[in-house]
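Duplicate of #3305? Posting structure anyway:
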């Protein structure tokens, strides 16, 4: 396994399907959202969808993953996103 520095991760080149369930949870938490708040922000997602994604029991469509990623990363710096994706 090749280790990369968090600075090597290009935010625009992230494959959303490669983000771990733990990282999704940490992105949400770091962006200061709870699951119900996400449900209120994105009317196409229910709290259950977020829970299943974070517990690795269900994947979401690429469109929904993109919506979540955009919502979370709008509240975070690129460095914060890189650190979470690199380490989790």
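Output from current build:
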């Amino acid at each position: 396994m090749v280790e990369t520095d968090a600075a090597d991760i290009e935010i625009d080149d992230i494959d959303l399907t490669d983000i771990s369930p733990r990282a999704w949870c940490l992105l949400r938490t770091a962006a200061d959202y709870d699951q119900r708040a996400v449900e209120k922000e994105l009317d196409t997602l229910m709290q259950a969808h977020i829970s299943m994604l974070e517990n690795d029991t269900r994947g979401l469509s690429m469109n929904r993953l993109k919506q979540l990623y955009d919502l979370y990363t709008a509240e975070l710096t690129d460095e914060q996103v890189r650190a979470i994706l690199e380490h989790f």
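Confirmed duplicate; merging threads. The first helix runs from residue 21 to 30. Residues 1-7 have pLDDT under 50 and may be disordered.
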